[in-house]
Amino acid sequence: MSSFTASDGARLHYTDQGAGLPVLCLAGLTRNSSDFDYVAPHLTDVRLIRLDYRGRGKSDWSGPETYNLQREGLDAVELLDHLGLRSAAILGTSRGGIIAMGLAATVKDRIKGVCLNDIGPEIAAPGLDAIRDYLGRRPAFKTRAEAVKALSTRLPGFDNVPESRWIEEAERHYIEDSQGLTFNYDPKLREAVLGASQNLNPDLWPFFDALDGLPLALIRGANSNLLTSDTANKMQAKRPDMLFADIPDRGHVPFLDEPGSLLTINAWLEECR
């Protein structure tokens, strides 16, 4: 286990494994570095660096005033500084992809390329409604067995997923306590994201345009409730060179070890090299 201290004093957890092209993995809103456990065994000749955002996973809960895209982007840059890396490719899932686009608009020289996992410049209303529904709210189920059943039957857009994967998901993202199960992030993340001053759906097209000239890939869940096929088509029109995979039987977000995901990620890595 490794950690570093951010410029505001927060202790942030990360992992740093392998050798080769540096690839910084940035997870989704409530998720953490374990999201990339599925893809990691399939990547070769890469230095895989995974960050737990503040308030998530094993990193400090530094307060809702710090749970924002600007601070999290700065944390990513400070991690690269801590590791002595001038630049890295970024594999960004959902919120991680938004952070990657923001970094391209502000510190583009620190980025070798970006792979977006089910995120784009427009966020669909059903996806936003789902975020509002679950964020920071204790799950109704009390055991991991109940969590596995709930995930396998209620998560929209996911078909033909083996039970073993839902067991892995339940183990990674729920913690047992005296009241049953809770999530492994600060519940005040809800306050940070859904506060009155927050714009949940900003215009991100200028940030997408900032990726110009960088190796770019997009992985989309074919049943995603957050990234529509229309938005993906617009992204392709703007970047005809963008590698793209529409992953069947997946909603928001693909696990990244699907055959189509791996084919796209490895082709993108070659472009980054």
N-end to C-end Cα span: 28 Å
Helix content: 25-40%
Number of strands: 10
Percent of residues in β-strands: 15-25%
Describe the sheet with the most strands: 8 strands, mixed
Order of helices and strands: EEEEHEHEHHHEEHHEHEH
Uncertain runs: none
Sequence of strands across the biggest β-sheet:
1-2-4-3-5-6-9-10
- Mean pLDDT, rounded to whole units? 95
Quaternary form: single chain
Shape: globular
The number of distinct helices, counting runs of at least 4 residues, comes to 9
- Report the structural category: alpha/beta
Radius of gyration: 17 Å
Give structural notes.
This protein has 273 residues and is of the alpha/beta class. The chain is built from nine helices and ten strands. It has helices at residues 69-82, 95-106, 125-134, 144-154, 163-173, 189-194, 205-209, 229-238, 259-272, and strands at residues 2-5, 11-18, 21-26, 46-51, 88-93, 111-117, 174-177, 180-183, 216-221, 243-247. The strands form two sheets. The protein has an eight-stranded mixed beta sheet, with helices on both faces. The chain has a two-stranded antiparallel sheet with strand order 7-8. The protein is globular. The mean pLDDT is 95.
Give a short synopsis of this structure.
Helices cover 34% and strands 21% of the residues. By secondary structure, the protein is α/β, with parallel strands linked by helices.
Secondary structure blueprint with pairings:
Layout: E1 2-5, E2 11-18, E3 21-26, E4 46-51, H1 69-82, E5 88-93, H2 95-106, E6 111-117, H3 125-134, H4 144-154, H5 163-173, E7 174-177, E8 180-183, H6 189-194, H7 205-209, E9 216-221, H8 229-238, E10 243-247, H9 259-272
Parallel strand pairs: 3-4, 3-5, 5-6, 6-9, 9-10
Antiparallel strand pairs: 1-2, 2-4, 7-8
Helix pairs in contact: 1-2, 4-5
